[in-house]
Design goal:
- Helices cover about 35% and strands about 35% of the residues.
- By secondary structure, the chain is α+β, with helices and mostly antiparallel strands.
- A four-stranded antiparallel β-sheet has the order 1-2-3-4.
- The longest helix is centred in the middle third of the chain and has 19 residues.
- The radius of gyration is 16 Å and the shape is elongated.
């Protein structure tokens, strides 16, 4: 097993519960961790088909971050679900974890970030 990670994907997006957040927007970070079996790619065929393509994961995150929603929970779960769906075609993914952070959230004090983290274990046998 291995973990393939994309950390610190930075997006300017329009997520937020308050209308002002959805109008003005702000910066968000997305981290994705995928536990997968890379044996075929690493030891057998040196082929991208035997692992997870970073470009595909980034494209999913970019597309979903561009769709304004009120809650980080929704965007994080949407990303999780789409990446989980890759398991149906590749059968390599065992676990997925997604963290979406809002930088400098509009609170009554200085807060560097807030985040929501969701994960899913897949039973692939």
């Amino acid at each position: 097993m291995a973990v393939i990670a994309l950390e610190g994907m930075k997006f300017y997006a329009y997520h937020g519960f308050y209308q002002e957040e959805r109008l003005i927007g702000g910066y968000f970070l997305v981290d994705v961790y995928i536990e997968t079996n890379i044996q075929a790619a690493a030891l057998e065929n040196d082929d991208l088909l035997g692992t997870i393509n970073y470009e595909t994961v980034f494209a999913i995150c970019k597309r979903l971050m561009a769709v304004p929603v009120k809650l980080l929970e929704k965007v994080a779960y949407s990303i999780l679900q789409e990446i989980t769906d890759l398991a149906n075609s590749s059968n390599h993914i065992r676990q997925v974890k997604v963290r979406v952070s809002k930088l400098n959230p509009p609170l009554a004090g200085q807060v560097a970030r807030t985040f929501i983290e969701v994960d899913k274990n897949l039973d692939i046998r």
